[in-house]
Amino acid sequence: MNARQIQFKQRESQIFAAAEQLLLEYGENSMTLDVLAQRLEVAKGTLYKHFQSKDELFIQLLIRREQALLDIVLTDGMDYPTRMAVYMLDHLHETGRSVLLYHLEERLSAEARHLNHLFSQLYKIRKQRLRRIIALTADYLTAQNSGMTVRDFLAAAWAVSHGAACLLHSSFYQRYLGTRDTLKIALIDQILALPAQHPRTAGDAPMLKLRTQPDAWPKPVDVT
Fold first, then answer.
1. Residue 224, in any domain of the structure
2. Helix, strand, coil % (nearest 5) of the chain?
3. 146 φ, ψ to 5°?
4. Is the confidence at residue 131, as pLDDT, over 50?
5. Which residues pair with 199 in a beta bridge?
6. Domain stop point among 50, 66, 89
7. Mean pLDDT of the chain
8. Is residue 221 in some structural domain?
């Protein structure tokens, strides 16, 4: 990249960082582009060089977040328990961000149909992350001689991470939680202890396919 392109990317990173901080401070509805421009001390027109609407800005934040999670998965020199701990702490240290971006994605996926091309980009990164973490998890469960499927283990990790983020972010429950760091450690230990609680038996052989092939995972039952 030339100097001008580098400057553009640096400005873009500053914009996204400020936008995320304002989202946490003001919430989705009150974080306007006018407020963002004021925080950055730039003309509002400068923002439109990087995105065309507030919804597009939000999806770009989701994409950057997904890329950060992918980077955790792709980091070399990290054993599986450490990788899982880093992933969970990424959610549990920044609970406001985790909860906000989750609800933001749910709303935009239902309402922002005109931005499907950006969702395609988001999902492409997410699929890349999932393919890698599925392979790593399958190897880990096999090494632990566990009868758990990849689906069950990763679903448990996601449920605990997201549920704990909501709990830690709750203004009501915060007064009862005590030391937050010890709770985070306990939750990570709980997830990492799951494989040993489900040792593999002879009857687990038919489940090997489910560990490594997400297309073979059971489909939801249509109850309509």
1. no
2. 80, 0, 20
3. -95, 145
4. yes
5. 146
6. 50
7. 87
8. no
Grade residue 221 by pLDDT with cuts at 50, 70 and 90. very low
Give residue 80's pLDDT.
96
Neighbours of 188 (CB within 10 A): 22
Domain of residue 5, residue span: 1-50
pLDDT for the residue 220: 54
- Give me the amino acid identity at 217: W
pLDDT confidence tier of residue 168, bands split at 50, 70 and 90: confident
Pair 112, 146 in one domain: yes
pTM: 0.81
Cβ-count burial 108-118 (b if 16+ within 10 Å, e if not): bbeebeebeeb
Q: Tell me how many domains the chain contains.
A: 2
CATH code (residue 6) = 1.10.10
Residue 18 belongs to a domain: yes
pLDDT at residue 29 in the model? 87
User: How many angstroms separate the CA atoms of 72 and 82, rounded?
Assistant: 10
Q: Is residue 217 part of a domain?
A: no
Q: Which residue has the tokens 């448990």?
A: 156
* Predicted pLDDT of residue 211: 47
In whole angstroms, give the CA distance from residue 207 to residue 148.
9
Indicate the angle between helix axes 116-143 and 54-74, nearest 10 degrees.
Answer: 20
